[in-house]
Amino acid sequence: FVIFARKSVIQLDLANTKKALIVPAFETLRYRLSFPKSKAELLSMLDMGTLFTFRYHVWTKGHAPTNFAKWRTATTPYRVEWEADFEPYVVVRKDCPEYDRRFVGFGWNKVAHIMELDAQEYEFTVLPNAYMIHMPHAPSFDITKFRSNKQYRICLKTLKEEFQQDMSRHYGFAALKYLTAENNS
């Protein structure tokens, strides 16, 4: 992955353009896995049910815009558009917007970051031969709190609303799509 990412960074001129290179994410439910050495091997593991697209069973919206069906046969990078709740793993320039510090722990850190990148007109480009695999692990303290504590969820909702208002103030009319998307999701 590292070698391919470096080549992509150079070929796609990441240093001089506003691009967010999307690394398609997959997951396994197995604690031990022989990491696929190629895209073909990964696709075989997907077909056999050893791997799945990331969070397909609990949060498909987070990675759906990656367009995994297209990725299966892609040989060149392709562009995708922002959608509500999109939270891909990305490679970006050092001078990109930082993660919003309001979102620590569990919830909305990547979503807010991708929203900010979109508002600043970053182009989302999916890498056709790169991938990452999420391995199973015990739930974090923060996700446990999110799931079990209503107050945590209320606080997160308040922070999301505050963030969206800040986006509207900063980006004006262009940020209305974020409010509309949130209300429809």
Provide an overview of this structure.
By secondary structure, this protein is α/β, with parallel strands linked by helices. It has one domain. It is built from seven helices and seven strands, in the order αββαβαββαββααα. The chain has a four-stranded mixed β-sheet, sandwiched between helices. The radius of gyration is 17 Å and the shape is globular. The two termini are 33 Å apart. Keywords: Glycoprotein, Membrane, Signal-anchor, Transferase, Transmembrane, Transmembrane helix. It is a single-pass type II membrane protein. This is LARG1 glucuronyltransferase.
Characteristic terms for this protein:
three-stranded mixed β-sheet; globular; LARG1 glucuronyltransferase; 185 residues; four-stranded mixed β-sheet; alpha/beta
- Over the alpha carbons, how many angstroms does the gyration radius reach? 17 Å
The biggest beta sheet, please? 4 strands, mixed
Total helical elements: 7
How far the N terminus sits from the C terminus, by CA atoms, comes to 33 Å
Multimerization state:
single chain
The coarse silhouette is globular
Order of helices and strands: HEEHEHEEHEEHHH
**Broad structural category:** alpha/beta
Note the beta-strand portion.
5-15%
Question: What is the total number of structural domains?
Answer: 1
Strand tally, please? 7
- Summed over residues and divided by their number, the pLDDT gives a mean of 88
Uncertain parts: none
- The helical percent reads 40-55%
Order of adjacent strands in the largest pleated sheet? 4-6-1-5
